[in-house]
Amino acid sequence: MSGIEIPLGFHQSLQKSSLYNNVELSDLTVKCQGTEIKVHKTVLACHSEHFKKMFKGPWKESKEKVLEIKDFEPAVVEAMIRFMYTFHYAGNKDADTSFHVKVHECADYYAMDVLKNMAAEKFRSVVGWVATRKELVALIEYLYRSPDLGLRELILDRITERIEILLDQDWFDDVMVSVTEFTAGMVRRMHKRNPMVYKCYNCHVAMPWSSMGNNPTNCYQCNAMVRWGDADGRLHSNTL
User: Fold this and answer.
1) CATH no. for residue 221?
2) Which CATH number fits the domain that encloses residue 24?
3) What digits encode the pLDDT tens for the residues 169-228?
4) Using CA atoms, how far apart are residues 177 and 198, in angstroms rounded to an integer?
5) Residue from 142, 210, 211 nearest 175 by CA
6) How many angstroms separate the CA atoms of 125 and 131, rounded?
7) Residue 124 Cα to chain centre, angstroms
8) How many domains does the chain have?
9) Which residue range(s) make up the domain with 231?
10) Residue 227 belongs to a domain
11) How are beta strands 28-32 and 66-68 bridged, if at all?
12) Which pTM was predicted?
């Protein structure tokens, strides 16, 4: 229809309206383990087909003014609802790295693809910065205790980047024994990796990477002593 201009900044207007958890015009209360958030059915329905069908169908939530969520923890539910009003959510400072995984699961459950993609990106940005061994173990256990929604690949990427160091750790052996699905995925990932090839500085023969790590060995053709294991693929050689 010509002559009608549709404003492009609707989400900015929604952000500035301060309607998040505001009783003004609210027609629904979301309850989760003692936490209550005032919301608007229209906003929820615009973001999620799940909620849209709920409010249009014969569900009790379509008639009552209370929606109780039991499958997710309060911080995750708050992140989901805050995203609906601000198109953003902040990480929980008191939570571990699995927080974004939980938001990702919540978004998948409620069919919110934009939030799901955002949570995946946030997880991708922090998974390489897991601070402690305890946190890494907890993250692996959580990911493999939950349905696979695509985030396992990200933790496998980080693990295989550091596999030579981790395999020397007793605690990592314990993880591989206790979380067998993770171990199977790691083995498949290692098998698919392109083999690293090193070139002898002396005779220029190509030598495939092996389990020798950084242990000195000799070129099988000219017997020049070399050191294996450079991350950037270069060969460091020491002639005896």
Assistant:
1) 2.20.28
2) 3.30.710.10
3) 889 989 999 999 999 998 888 777 655 556 667 777 665 554 444 544 666 667 777 654
4) 33
5) 142
6) 13
7) 5
8) 3
9) 196-240
10) yes
11) parallel
12) 0.71
